[in-house]
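#structure-requests
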Amino acid sequence: MTKIWRTQAQNGMLKQVVSGSSDKSVCIWDALNGELVRELKGHTGPVWSVAFSPNGKQVVSGSDDNSVRIWDVLTGDLVKELNHHTDWVESVAFSPDGKQVVSGSDDKSVCIWDTFTGDLVKELNGHTEWVWSVAFSPDGKQVVSGSHDKSVCIWDALTGELVKELTGHTDSVGSVAFSPDGKWVVSGSSDQSVCIWDALTGDLVNELNWHMNSVQSVAFSPDGKQVVSGSSDQSVCIWDAFTGDLLKELTGHTDSIRDPGRE
């Protein structure tokens, strides 16, 4: 059975959706009529992560084949193939200005790439296990990563230096994200918890407990006041980011939830 691992809406608007699948393909869909716009082929292994560029003109994908690929949305052409990782690429994301891409891999490294030249800008080393999730801060100056080693790391995107290591999870960290103002980081873990951290001090601000299985994906709302989490317990939870209160539990899925989006 083919599984779709990651999806993302274009520019945060419901015009197009990109998906990556275990069938090795990347697909771009019309969000209004549901039609397949373009299928991007070239990966030789399952595609674990996909993302649109901020201007919506490019898509980045990360795969089991150890590569990161950048595609032209309009033509479907492969723009760049980025090769340096020595194991599966689990997570990819564009910088806010679209000039860089960050990738996290099972080889324990986080890589920052120049999207125009394809050059490796920085390799961030410090995790001791697979890196499951990566994201840029809203100003593009920092990168956050979550790992199987149970830690969340904040890095300086310019120097590559480790700024903060956030510890407290007792199992693998599968998803991380910055708040829209860059002041907070949210993380979801196989320990079933969602944690909100102060990005400046590294302090744990809130630990959100309700899920009954691994938390696979987390995100902030556009105003930063809420957090959404998706879990292997088949539920989606919406939380108050400041009080930690559970606002809504959304049920109906019959399998793990890998990627809840935000409007």
